[in-house]
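Forwarding the complex inputs:
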Amino acid sequence: MSATRLVIVDGVRTPFSKMGTDLAHLGADELGRIAVSALLARTGIDPAIIDEVIFGCVAQPADAANVARVIALRAGIPEHVPAITVHRNCASGCEAITQAQEKMLAGRGSIFVVGGTESMSQVPLLFTMRAAQKFAKLSRAKSMWQRIGAMAAFRPSDFTPRIGLQLGLTDPVCGLNMGETAEVLAREFGLSRELQDAFAVESHARALAARDKIAEEICPVYPTLNVERARGKTSGTVMEDNGPRKDQTLEILGKLRPVFEKRTGTVTAGNSSQITDGAVALLVMTEQKATEMALTPLGILTGYAYAGCDPTRMGLGPVFAIAKAEEVTGLTTDHADLIEINEAFAAQVLAVLKCLRSDEFAAKFLRRSRHVGKISKERLNVNGGAIALGHPVGATGARLALTSLKELARRQAKRALVSLCVGGGQGAALWLERPQL
Amino acid sequence: MTTTLECEVTREQADQMTQSPITPALIRSEITDDQICVVTFDRPDSAANIFDRGALEQLHQQLDSIAADSRVRGIIFASGKKSIFITGADLHSISKCDDPRELEALIHLGQTVFDRIAGLRVPTIAAIHGACVGGGYELCLACNYRIATFDKATKIGLPETQLGILPAWGGSTRLPRLIGLPKALDVILGGKTLAPKQALKLGMVDELVHREYLLDYARSVLLKSNTKLMRRKVPLMVRLSNTRIAARLISKKVQPQLHKKTRGHYPALPKALEVVTEGITRSFPGSLELERRAIVELAQSSTARNLVRVFFLQERAKKLTVGVDTGKTPVRHVAVIGAGVMGAGIAQWSAAREIQVLLRDVNPEQVGKGMSSIAKLLQEGVKRRVFTPVEARAAMDRVVPMAADVPLRKVDIIIEAAVEKMDLKKQIFRRLDELAGLKTILATNTSALSVSELAAATLRPERVVGIHFFNPVHRMQLVEVVVGKQTSPEVVSRAVRFVQQLGKLPVVVNDSPGFLVNRILMPYLIEAGHLFENGASVENIDESMLEFGMPMGPLRLIDEVGVDVSNHVAETISAHFSPRLRTPSVLGSMLNDGLLGRKSSRGYYLHDKKSRGTDVNPHVDKYQKGTSAAALSRDELRSRMVFLMINEAARCLEEGVVSEPADVDFGMIMGTGFAPFRGGPLRFADEVGIPQIAEEMYKLAHKGEAQFAPCRLLELMAARQEKFYAATRI
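Prediction (whole assembly, two chains):
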């Protein structure tokens, strides 16, 4: 039994809810706390033996800095257990898992609670720097005259907020919004609107069909009090994801207007991932610890890779990461019984599939003679993806690991490959395996 | 360098000391280099500081020496205890005092000593950390300035009226002069004990500091504004509210309110009102004299004695230990099975006491409702400033809702609060037995089912116990710890400790139908039902018991508890004690018609949000079948209902449900609100006289109402002219 191999013992997630809906009143810390509390209760593990809590979160709440620590303490994990928040954009949830693996390899702990959380509803609106400076001046003003002077400096435009979410989804290096990078791929790979919409329809259909299966990974969000944020208002119990839509057809999706390029664009709200709130928590430990504690893990992390690529075409990240992971593990896509490629955009997933099976792309960008692999739809995102379920950016990586392991168990299958594109031009790929009993 | 006065005192007073038995030094004084004298109260061999005659005399002597010392520029009064400043007068010495002259002398001594402090030529500061109540705060009032700590242990107030007396060491005189009449009446009549911040807001203390800096800060205040402290101005609002006219107006307004609330059962309240409002118009000594006369009068009453007894019984319950000592390891993790009203209430209370709680129900919807009600309770707590928002959130975070089976190995105590059905509970207990750790205690919150029978369904009957909370959990202090046939002493001990950890008051009872409180309450409620059926009006029945001093009439209580619940408990208990008890059919009829009491807003009363005055449900008349009780006077109604409680209470003793009369009285007062000033049903029986009661009961029984036949124990005691309580015991 390996003292360094990471196994995932169990995992649970909150329902995923579209921005501004069922979970909008809960901050990222609250969502994370709910997932971790439920994980601890379900596994019955003594929280005192946890070595560290690692959580991914992209837009950390301003009132819960190092949100992982806030989550850990609020979930009843003793204060001696440290916590760290990690950030690799859309792969933050993966990063939490792989950092635990790296700590195990370095001999820095053997039991971790990892995961990801995101409240996209609560990404704040920001003031411009110019306005902020004026506010600072106002707060420093002492005399009446200074105060009036400081106030007079404000212009109406100072009160126009900068939308934090929009800023976060825009690449500061290439200057493109994530949706615009998807438009680049659609153009360059000739991915029609119909193709993308068909992919989206399939995602919703699969997610709906898998409702009962998906329920296994969900812990309901019960009413809770929220003293600061909602003045103690409580809401009802949220039991399931509210993203998947019934009766999604090409016709209906076809009516949506492109979001990022009004005239000639093909990327719409319907064929992009939903903006969503949610959190995932996983209990991971070394294989050895799991054996000692007589726990049957869901799966083993057998290899992983992160790879960089052109920020303008960040959607192709999975191609690079999967190729790099092959170098580490020797596993090709043919070895995978299940494959999850995060559906940031339908165009982006379709582009990835194209590149993976292209010898030309392989030769030009991956320095290899043959293509990486051909992925059939039967193995890909079998229970739907982020287009239907939503993409709480910090949490998705961990969700994909959880959902693919649960499906492996149901299918009695062996291996799963999980991959995401990452804003800023990166890709992540994780190889997971069901333990042989 | 410090000089200790204590030695000098001892030498100077040596002659006097040898005459009386030598009391150990309760108070030390030190004069520091900056010429500040710190007087520290530190009673040896005790966690508390109290004022008895000895302490007052010592203080008096020390004050003499300090006053004579020309070096002293200021005085600080402090405590050497960890969480107590001074908890006031020694209650034993007041309640045991049969001779009014002796009491008057003690009161006079306290007033003199505190007057001495107020009259010192140097400024004085009370440095308050820990409980500072009653006489302790009256000492502070005699100082020029009061500084308290932010600490949770610091509590400030004058709770005397709760004990049926009033602040008489200058409290009723000085507090209104410090903070104004209206606020002072609020504190004194409410018998309030306040958190530091509230005390600061009211002006009862002048400043709050952190504990670590308390003495240094007090010192710096003395050094900085030495003389200013002695010439503090009385604020305008206080001066305005303390005029003769204002006092008379306030008195006129408050008097009828008090009477309405207490129905004249708590003489301390009108008396305190009189002393405070009258005292403000008099000279200082005149007002002190009023205090003195009032307390001597009040302390003689049985009301005060009974209230003091209840206080002692509460203290006893807080410290109760049972059987084997199980150490002080606190309970950290509980699971509550069932997220109904009781389950949610127990979960909320435990979480607020820093215990991790798993709230489990089969139905996710019910879990949601439970969580919702927990959130509401906490939110109300925030509004009432019981919790800070941060504390409320932390409590909420400690409750983990769960609608699926999860491991319970690490849980210390599992409390089952499911529907009251034996089969269901047995099924639950069998499952819990599998999921729980070996050391986990399985507790049931059942109010009427047999703990022993439930225990027998598990493989660990010795670890099964009843922990019976009352509704609403956050308001009711009493918890019955029910000992099943096989419950081990260790488990009982642990359960008692858990109840104390929750800040509740345990009473240990043996498993028997209805345990203690419901057992005694049911015959009373059942009789109320029969009386109603036979023509007594809702008003007369309830009013008669309100006049007796119950917080609520029996029929209104049934409405509050729920007609369904009452009917269920009545039937469960009646089944055991048939034919003596039989459930009145009115309950079943109401149930059939959907009159469930408050929960359906219809019962004996209408519970819509209208006025609380005449809200009797006009349609309940139709359930009245007879007329035999229609002509009974309120007195007659009352004695019938009270007799049945006394009779059942005696049976509980006879059958060994509890071990002593005090348990019965304590349980009834804390569990049902049984008129505390009457000291409980058994104390009340003692005061009326058991032979008289037995005779009245025989009369009723002979008229064909068999339920009034006195039990064996009452018969015997009546024949032997015995009392439940030995004459001199408190």
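The longest helix of chain A spans residues 393-411.
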